[in-house]
Design a protein that fits this description.
There is one protein chain. This protein is α+β, with helices and mostly antiparallel strands and 259 residues long. Helix 5 crosses helix 6 and helix 6 runs antiparallel to helix 7. It is built from 8 helices and 9 strands. The radius of gyration is 24 Å and the shape is elongated.
Length: 259
């Protein structure tokens, strides 16, 4: 057998895709299918287990369908039991390697995180500005913005180029300042009803706030009521949207080997 033939024979055709870590006795939803169409299963070690499925070893990851499959598996399993979710794209060569490289060396760390997340879930609150309202606020609070807007009001589109650029820059800067204030206000208002808070980076130009909260089961009614009350207080200015319960992605610390 030539060297190239031996490499072909020995080259693995599948790999192990890892979605997260759960208690070893966690029940899996029946027939749950993961990325690349593989059936989801558990690789156990001690009192923990990795949630995995097989994928083709030579298969590149990164499509929208791959991401949606990852999220579907994570949320399905997290709905059954406490889960330490891993970020999209965690691949290990074999099931044995999952134990040798993840579960065995980091068992105590994973066990501590599972215990920390037990009985808790992530809720994410998004705020989106009502554009007409927030623009009126900017015009009232920023005299230079008002002045430039009035100056450009009756000019043709091709005129006043640099003033238009300046006007856009001022509005963007004013909105960013408002976003920082409103993001902090949302976090401060809801923090008393959560175990932990993780402000996130705004994902769109009209974003007013984006904050993740780790909420205990017993806190959930008060947390949801507080979100409703803030939504009423901000009505006409900011539209709030609540997502959850979710797997606690934003509250999983870096593993020792990732730090």
């Amino acid at each position: 057998m030539t060297q190239s033939q031996a490499e072909t024979v020995e080259s693995p055709t599948t790999a192990c895709y890892v979605y997260g870590i759960v208690p070893a006795d966690t029940p899996l939803p029946e027939g749950l299918i993961g990325t690349d169409g593989g059936e989801v299963s558990l690789v156990r070690h001690g009192d923990l287990a990795a949630v995995v499925s097989e994928i083709r070893a030579d298969r590149p990851l990164g499509t929208r369908d791959d991401l949606l499959s990852h999220e579907r598996v994570v949320e399905s399993v997290a709905a059954q039991d406490t889960m330490v979710p891993l970020r999209f794209g965690a691949v290990v060569t074999t099931a044995d390697a999952v134990v040798e490289e993840m579960l065995a060396p980091h068992h105590d760390w994973f066990a501590d995180v599972v215990a920390e997340l037990d009985g808790r879930a992530q809720f994410t609150v998004f705020g989106t500005y009502v554009q007409d309202t927030v623009l009126r606020e900017v015009l009232t609070e920023q005299p230079e913005v008002m002045r430039l807007r009035e100056t450009l009001r009756d000019l043709p589109e091709e005129a006043g180029y640099y003033d238009r650029v300046r006007l856009g820059e001022l509005i963007v800067k004013a909105l960013e300042a408002k976003r920082q204030v409103d993001n902090a206000a949302l976090a401060d208002t809801l923090a008393p009803h959560a175990v932990a808070v993780a402000p996130r980076q705004a994902s769109a130009e009209d974003s007013a706030a984006d904050v993740a909260f780790l909420v205990g089961q017993e806190q959930r009614p008060a947390f949801e009521q507080a979100v409703d009350e803030l939504g009423h207080a901000w009505a006409g200015r900011v539209r709030l949207r609540l997502l959850g319960p979710l797997a606690a992605y934003d509250f999983v610390p870096a593993r020792p080997d990732e730090a």
